[in-house]
């Protein structure tokens, strides 16, 4: 199979594991403390309206973000439950006996909504805090362009400091290692190499389609967009920053897709480098054990995708 014909897969690091998603399924593999690997499978739901929206430039980015936030939250919830159950297994079992479990549907909906809200709330904070910080510097850096540049600088500093601080915690450091393992598996697959631990470890932990790159592009894109709108008085600045969040996200998504398409062109490939540099913070070198978990997740996804495609082909023939 040529590289052009290969389907596109994405992924996400979770607590002690990795999630991978394909056309029909998403799969998470998590390693428990007894060294066993457990899986969580979630089929992708096909919704005609959503599928049509995902073909519309600039809008498709917002739709994809909402979908990935909702789906990713469910997988993250699964991995967190595995982690918590191992740390306090007996108490967890007692709670399950004493408490009536909610239906899977209500649980999934709840986690999905929380995931989307958390993403939007975080984006709101990282958008507005730099606004007020930049306003404090107005006596020194006055003028529209100067204020937008200072605001963008504060946003970048806030982003880098936040990532660095959370990366110091043992749990997040391991998540970043699994993030590196996820990228290595995707890079190994896309290069056409055999999916072995050795080949995966030899692959890069950086990838052009990474969400980390997308976050950085929102800062860069936001800077150019904000140059086109008024900043005074302060309430106007706050309102237009909030209203422009979907616009910035939509454009940043298109920029991310463009840099991925241009990555093999000698000069234009450098357009994606800022995002790759940020990944030096959000990914860490994984251990062989962590790569094994990532491989287990990806291979399980490939198996399920293959079975689904065969089933669909059979339905067409019949």
TrEMBL record:
- Give the residue range of the signal peptide: none
Keywords linked to the UniProt accession: Membrane, Transmembrane, Transmembrane helix
Region ranges (Disordered) = 77-98
Top-level taxonomic group: Bacteria
Amino acid composition bias (Acidic residues), ranges on this chain: 82-91
Q: Which residues cross the membrane?
A: 105-133, 153-172, 210-229, 235-256
> Entry's InterPro entries?
DUF1385 (IPR010787)
Protein name per UniProt: Uncharacterized conserved protein YqhQ
């Amino acid at each position: 199979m040529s590289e052009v014909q290969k389907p596109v897969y994405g992924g996400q690091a979770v607590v002690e594991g990795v999630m991978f998603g394909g056309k029909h399924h998403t799969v998470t593999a998590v390693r428990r403390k007894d060294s066993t690997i457990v899986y969580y499978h979630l089929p992708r739901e096909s919704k005609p309206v959503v599928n049509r929206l995902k073909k519309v430039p600039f809008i498709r980015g917002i739709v994809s973000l909402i979908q990935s936030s909702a789906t990713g939250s469910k997988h993250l919830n699964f991995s967190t439950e595995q982690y918590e159950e191992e740390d306090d297994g007996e108490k967890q079992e007692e709670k399950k006996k004493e408490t009536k479990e909610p239906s899977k549907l209500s649980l999934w909906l709840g986690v999905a909504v929380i995931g989307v809200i958390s993403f939007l709330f975080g984006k709101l904070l990282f958008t507005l805090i730099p606004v007020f910080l930049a306003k404090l510097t107005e006596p020194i850096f006055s003028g529209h362009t100067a204020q937008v540049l200072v605001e963008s600088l504060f946003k970048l500093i806030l982003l880098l400091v936040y990532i660095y601080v959370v990366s110091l915690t043992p749990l997040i450091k391991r998540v970043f290692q699994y993030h590196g393992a996820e990228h290595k598996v995707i890079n190994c697959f896309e290069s056409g190499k055999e999916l072995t631990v050795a080949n995966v470890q030899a692959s890069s932990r950086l990838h052009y389609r990474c969400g980390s790159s997308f976050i950085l592009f929102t800062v860069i894109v936001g800077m150019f967009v904000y140059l086109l709108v008024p900043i005074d008085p302060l309430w106007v600045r706050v309102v237009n920053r909030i209203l422009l969040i979907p616009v910035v996200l939509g454009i940043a998504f298109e920029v991310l897709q463009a840099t991925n398409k241009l990555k093999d062109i000698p000069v234009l490939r450098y357009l994606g480098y800022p995002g790759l540099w940020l990944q030096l913070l959000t990914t860490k070198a994984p251990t062989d054990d962590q790569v094994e978990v990532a491989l287990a997740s990806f291979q399980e996804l490939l198996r399920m995708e293959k079975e689904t495609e065969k089933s669909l082909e059979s339905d067409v023939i019949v």
